C-alpha cells in the first residue's frame, strides 16, 4: 500500500484590510486568491470499494474545502475584529458579507485558519499535508503539517 499526496486547487475572490498597517494594504482592497490543498493518505485497496486506488475522491475533497473555506470567504470582506465596524454592519447590503477574525487577515494568518478548518473535516486516515494560499501572481504563504506539530 502506497502513501500518496493529492492536491486540489481552488480560487475565490476576497477583500481585506490590515488594521494599523503602514502601507497601502491598510485600505480595503481585494485579491483573486488561489488555494492549493494537499492531503496525504494510503490508497484504498479494497476491491469492493468504488474508490479503489484513490487516496480521497477529488469530489469529496472539493466538497470539504468549499464548505469550510471557499463558500465562507468568497466575495467576503475580512477584517481584524479590532477594526471599528459598528458603522459598516447593516448599513448597506454591500457590507452583509463581512467576516471579523481575531487576527490580522494576512495570507500568513489566513492559511493557518484555513488549515484548522479543513483538518477537522477530513475523513479518517487522511491528513492535511500542506496548503498554499496565493494572494497575487507573485506572492503566497504556505503551511506544512510537519512544521506545525
In short:
The chain has 149 residues and is of the alpha/beta class. It has helices at 58-73, 107-119, and strands at 3-16, 29-42, 76-80, 98-101, 127-136, 139-144. The chain has a single domain (3-147), classed as 6-pyruvoyl tetrahydropterin synthase/QueD (Tetrahydropterin Synthase, Chain A, 2-Layer Sandwich), CATH 3.30.479.10.
Can you tell me about this structure?
The protein is of the alpha/beta class. The chain has a single domain (3-147), classed as Tetrahydropterin Synthase, Chain A (2-Layer Sandwich). Helix content is 19%, strand content 36%. The chain contains two helices and six strands; from the N terminus they run ββαββαββ. A hairpin with a 2-residue loop joins β5 (127-136) and β6 (139-144). The two termini are 25 Å apart.
What tags apply to this protein structure?
single chain; 149 residues; alpha/beta; Tetrahydropterin Synthase, Chain A
Straight-line N-to-C gap: 25 Å
Q: How many β-strand runs? A: 6
For the record, the CATH class is Alpha Beta
**Number of helices, counting only DSSP H or I runs of 4 residues or more:** 2
Using only CA atoms, what is the Rg?
18 Å
Number of domains: 1
CATH topology: Tetrahydropterin Synthase, Chain A
Mean pLDDT: 93
Strand content: 35-45%
Structural class comes to: alpha/beta
